[in-house]
Design a protein that fits this description.
Layout lengths: L1 H68 L6 H61 L4 H9 L4 H75 L2 H56 L13 H14 L17 H12 L12 E4 L2 E4 L7 E4 L2 E5 L4 E3 L4 E9 L3 E8 L2 E11 L6 E2 L4 E5 L7 E9 L2 E3 L10
Antiparallel strand pairs: 1-4, 2-3, 4-11, 5-10, 6-7, 6-9, 7-8, 8-10, 8-11, 11-12
Organism: Hymenobacter persicinus
Protein name: Peptidase M23
Keywords: Coiled coil, Signal
Amino acid sequence: MRGKSNHAAAALLLVFVLIAQGAATVAQQRARARTAAAPAKKSKAQLERERRANLRRIRETSRILEQTQKQKQASLGQLNALKEKLTVQKSVISSISSELKYIESDVRQTATQVQQTQQSLAQLKAEYARLIYASSKTANSYNRIMFLFAADSFNQLMLRLRYIRQYSEVRQKQAAQISSTQQHLSHQLTGLTEKKQEKSTLLTTQVAESRNLLTLKTQQDQVVTKLSQQEEGLRQELAERQQAVSRLDNLIAERVREEIARAARVARAAAARAAAARAAKAAAARTAPSANPGRSSEPATARTNTSSAAAEDAPAEEAPAERTDRVTLTPETAVLSSSFADNRGRLLWPVGRGFISQRFGRHSHPVLKNVIVENRGVDIQTSAGEPVRAIFDGKVLTVASIAGMNNIVMIQHGEYFTVYAKLRSVSVSEGQTVHMRQQIGTVYTSPEGTSELQFQVWRNSANLNPENWLSRIR
């Protein structure tokens, strides 16, 4: 009898050990699954945001391209829009490929987790079967009573009584754990199915975007072929542009020189006024009435001569050195200039929509062979009638009109200048103070249907790359 009771106790203890091991195994597997999945989701979300941003750029570029295609004749503006759309289309396909890699990794991880959960479920069921088999040996009340009274001491009796009371709870917990594991497995299988569907959808999207890319390449080749047949017209257009750029450069250089000279004159005048005020103050101090009444009868002429001599003897104020290469800043313009410099790489775009169709510096002509063009700024192609806005607070230095560049607005920001060319209309005047985001005009649209803004940044007489100053986000 005692042997049977000891056997039942051993079986019960074995059940507790098996349950604890099974619970620990399941918990470890779930923890590993959460740890492995967390970083992938974040990277995948970033890729999705990039893809949405690229799709938005494609829609904007498509609208611009449609405006250039309204004219039957091919144009450089149409070619630039096609190039931009091709570039963004490639970025979209690259983002989709990266997303697919993450999804494939998720599918593999989830499949592994499903397999592990299935193994854990099988182990739990086997342990539960052993528990049921062990409990069947002590199922009747007679065996339980004999198990209790076979105890060697009262403490052992109480311990065996507690085991019996917990026996049913253990079975319930084991059954609940099996049910929970089954639910977790069902959830994993559902997630696996969803990820496979997402993968299938992305693959379909990738195929469609690749077809769009091939269509765009075909259109680009057609436009290049048409433009190559217009070489004489393109060379004439290039010559006219170079003349317009030269006129604009001369205008900018002249205005900068004038502003440097004007600021220097203002600084000299301010220094002269300050020196005169100090001299007058010193002379007044020296010619003040003396406390000695005997000297009060001194002739006025003598006092005047003394004052003149004192003014001559006073040290002359050293005039500031005149700079011919930079604008002399007042305290107010120095703050504005410093603030402009501090916002390098974060400045507002001059238009709300569009893309850079021609970058800063020297580069090959998009059609003409062995021809190098130089750009003092950046050309931003946008929609017809797009508002042009000031990128920072400042003062309108110049409003002019140049053949080939249409209307020009030049804004001063301390020792920095921004130039907005190819404007159809202008809504500011010279000397006017403007603020960031304030509209200064609208973009001009050429007869070929290209709406393009020429934008430049200068520091005194030095030409700067606007792309280094503008924000990456429009």
